[in-house]
Amino acid sequence: MYAQMIKSEATQDDPEKLAAFQARIDANEKIEPKDWMPEGYRKTLIRQIGQHAHSEIVGQLPEGNWITRAPTLERKAILLAKVQDEAGHGLYLYCAAETLGVTRDELTEMLLDGRMKYSSIFNYPTLTWADMGAVGWLVDGAAIMNQVPLQRTSFGPYSRSMIRICKEESFHQRQGYDIMMKMCKGTDAQKRMAQNALDRMWFPSLMMFGPSDADSVHSEQSMKWKIKMNGNDELRQKFVDQTVPQAEYLGLTVPDPDLTWNEEKGGYDFSQPDWDEFYDVLKGNGPCNKERLAARNKAWDDGAWVREGLMAHAEKKRAAKLAAE
Amino acid sequence: MASADPYFDFLLRMGDNTLILGHRVSEWCGHAPVIEEDIALANTALDLIGQTQMWLGLAAEVEGKIRTADDLAMLRDAWDFRSALLVQQPNGDFGQTLMRQFLFDAWHLEMLKGLIKSSEVRVAEIAAKAVKEVQYHVERSGDTVIGLGDGTAESHAKMQAALDLLWPFVGELFTPDAVDDAMTANGIAPDLNDLRTAFDTHIGSVMTEATLTIPDSRFAHKGGKSGFQHSEHLGHILTQMQWLQRAYPGASW
User: Fold this and answer.
1) Is the torsion defined by CA of A255, A257, A261, A266 positive or negative?
2) Of the four, A16, A80, B4, B65, which is 20 to 30 A from B184 by CA?
3) CA distances for A208 relative to A52, A144, A282, A293, B5, angstroms
């Protein structure tokens, strides 16, 4: 997901306070920033919301890669609007994280020096125009699977940002699928691009949900706190069940020879992605890790004089205003 | 080469300016100094591409519906473009991008204010829609020029360098040629000479507040809006922008 492998913090708080806190969560009350919360809850949320925010920001890059090459004015406008939304999502999420006592600059520094991660999916390249379709259809589709339930998450600011984000994400997914439809009804070359995009992005999309719950040591506490709403395998299954018929409708072949409908469970049986590849990507060995982080570092470093200049100006204005009073 | 119809040429000028500048600004996507600027730059590019659709859409109609707005954007070679040299200039650093934006916005605002009163209803309608967006663009770019000009010594120096670099591209926007004269004569577009006064007042006050010095020269490069002699940059912009349409002719996207 946009937040993967989030480590839950063990918590050593007063048992009475903890029980009262858990009772509030069980009663579906929202926890607000000024409320008491276990240190572990706070730290886990900072990590999760921060990683989600970073994913939105780094996620601008693979799609930004095609804005200047979009094939029509309308497609260019839609893609611009989408990438702009993603920056906006990043902003809401950083604001939500800031209510937990960390600054946006601190989070940014942790992204840039590798202490914090972003979703593995954004370390894959976007190579043809069909990738703009596949990213919307598969990547945003997978994100929605996780984010819709997160609208009910226990932390108020996170829940409210999810509600705003989900509205826009469903538009993103539709525009992605629309690109795929156009490609699949198009020329042979366009169909080939569409199939090629699905071939490359299918398994990385399945990885977005994170490793199997059996291997996910941090899930249990997060689910108890309603920071994580569903298991990884459950969401992955739901995603496959939703996406396979869409691929069939497009006339595309899901690149999994073992994909079969299982009547008994009412869902598809499918192959697991290569989890070694997933861990390699997390370690920095994905196809684009270095480029993505280098691009974000360059933007930050090149922008330092701009941020300093604007701050200095604001300070001068404030001083002038004070002097005039 | 001017086309036979100055009205068509005029519409291309409006649409090509917004198209090429929109393209340039969109190059920033994901690379801005802060998220708020990423959002603002994408938003500006989006407005400019939207305006392009209107101007080139009308140009295509005026031409006789042989081509669409997309055909005009994606299938003309550089010499048939009518964008001013200013908008073709590379982004440079963030300050240079915002200086280019402000100089263009300040011209664009006056131009659109004049076009609202156009004798051509369709032109007036597009201008009325666009002017609301551009009013916001110029406020934002002007504020940023002020903030960085009157910021640190480093930001001041960078903004002065950007102004010095881009100033020679301003004059083209205000220098009337046969197309402009024809547009003024039939009331489609305002007299460019008249716009200059308002422009000079506007940028004069912004540059003063930004503690920047406008170069004491009216020298103006020309050749963009006439298409006679574009910058070398334009061809490279088109190799990216038009690549898919050129590589897969006739495909629908």
Assistant:
1) negative
2) B65
3) 12, 11, 11, 19, 55
Residues of chain A contacting residue B45, judged by C-beta atoms under 8 Å apart: 67, 80
End-to-end CA distance of chain B: 31
Q: Which pLDDT value is given to residue B3? A: 61
Q: What's the pLDDT tens digit per position in A5-14?
A: 777 776 678 8
Residue B46 is nearest to which of A81, A90, A182, comparing CB atoms? Answer: A81
Instruction: Provide the chain B residues 63-122 that lie in CB contact (below 8 A) with chain A.
Output: 69-70, 73-74, 93-95
pLDDT beyond 60 at B226: yes
B157 touches chain A (CB under 8 A): no
Cα–Cα distance, B141 to B159 (Å, whole number) = 12
Flag residues of chain A having pLDDT under 70: 1, 10-11, 217
Spatial CA neighbour of B59 closest among B130, B9, B124: B9
A266 burial type by CB count under 10 A (0-12 exposed, 13-18 middle, 19+ buried): exposed
Segments making up each domain of chain B, as ranges: 6-247
Instruction: For residues A96 and A11, give the distance between their C-alpha atoms in angstroms, rounded to a whole number.
Output: 22
**What one-character DSSP code corresponds to residue A282?**
I
Q: Which residues pair with A262 in a beta bridge?
A: A267
Sign, CA torsion A265/A267/A271/A274: negative
- pLDDT score recorded for residue A1: 58
Nearest to B93 among A61, A300, A302 (CB): A302
A88 in contact with chain B, both atoms CB, cutoff 8 A: yes
Residue type for position A149: P
User: What pLDDT is stored for residue A102 in this prediction?
Assistant: 97
The partner residue sitting opposite A67, judged by closest CB among B29, B32, B250, is B29
A261 strand-pairing partners: A268
pTM (predicted TM-score): 0.95
- The answer, for A211 touching chain B at a CB cutoff of 8 Å, is no
Architecture of domain B6-247: Up-down Bundle (1.20)
**pLDDT over 50 (residue B5):** yes
* pLDDT score of B1 more than 50: no
pLDDT value of position B81: 98
In angstroms, the Cα distances linking A268 to A142, A197, A204, A244 are 16, 21, 18, 9
Q: What is the dihedral of CA A70, A75, A76, A77, to 10 degrees?
A: 180
Interchain contact B23–A (C-beta under 8 A)? yes
Q: Which residues of A touch B46 (CB under 8 A)?
A: 77, 80-81, 84
What ipTM score was computed for the predicted complex, to two decimals?
Answer: 0.96
Q: CB of B244 within 8 Å of any CB in chain A?
A: yes
Cβ–Cβ < 8 Å for B20, B87: yes
